[in-house]
Amino acid sequence: MQFDPSQSAVVLGCGSWGTALGITLAEYFHTVTLVGRDDDQVAEINAFHTNANFLPRITLPTNIQATTDYAVTKDASLILFVVPTSATRAAATELAKVGIPSTIPLISCSKGIERGSGSRMSEIIAELLPQNPVAVHSGPTHAEEVSTKMATCAVVGTPDEQLAEELQKVFTTPFFRTYTSDDVAGIELGGALKNVFAIAAGVISGIGLGDNAIAAMVTRGLAEMTRLGVALGGRPETFAGLSGVGDLMVTCYSSHSRNNRVGKAIGSGETLEEVTTRLGMVAEGVPNTLSIYEAAKAHNIDTPIIDAVYHILYENKSAEEALVELLTRDLKPEME
């Protein structure tokens, strides 16, 4: 399989990350089409080459266009899923109705697992579009930096070695470097699990603690991420890579992280409803805390930090009380 630069790519999703990936793909493909749901947003992208609500002050390349019509996907050579995780099943269902050719690779770029089923996004896509090859894309990749072409590295995952090599070429530019892996589960789980720890990092900042506490949480969070991620099908070494510790660090320390901002606001005294309304965008860690907490319990995995974030978000436990409980748990060796 080879991708022809004269052809087009389609990105399902017109949010900040979908738009940033569109900018990256526009370096390779003749045409990139963003598929959204809002007519005004689509009109803005087409008329002014901007997406001001999501990426202010960014001018999009002229070879990016937008539409609300899924029919455009039939002529694509590559389709990216960059919708909220809660909308992935609906997007895949809509794509299946279109009847796209079975040769078009589908790339999941959203970070989370489905509540109830515990399915990863690539599993949902493969379930509804079983004839198409499916891959995943993840890493420490803030849209705000990718959209301005700041140096970034990511990883693409698929067991198909040839597809991996071709996707690596598509997602590699002078500012964006992509690696490959065949550990699809590990890549997706790293991207999903780190969202919960980003909220925890924000809470720590919000209640006025410092670098020591955040560093401890990130370190223990990585141990927790690896423990749960391996139980859910990932390989240990993947969590030491870009989609694991890399994504964990960037989202726990960066002001670009929506999850971090949610946690900081809650730690400062805002309610979950107040902060999500004010943010105006999806912070995936909020719904994913539910699905990840449920997955940990279903597999009987010890996840004290995930548990604490769940209790803060959904059981109204104060951040200070949750912190005391974390610090006064039974003592144990570090490597357990």
How would you describe the overall organization of this protein?
With 336 residues, this protein is of the alpha/beta class. The chain has two domains: 8-182, NAD(P)-binding Rossmann-like Domain (Rossmann fold, 3-Layer(aba) Sandwich), CATH 3.40.50.720; 192-327, Orthogonal Bundle (N-(1-d-carboxylethyl)-l-norvaline Dehydrogenase, domain 2). The protein is 48% helix and 11% strand. It contains 14 helices and eight strands. It has an eight-stranded mixed sheet, sandwiched between helices. Helix 7 (184-206) packs antiparallel against helix 8 (211-231) and helix 7 (184-206) packs parallel to helix 9 (242-253). The chain is globular and about 60 Å long. It starts with 7 loop residues before the first strand and ends in a 9-residue tail after the last helix.
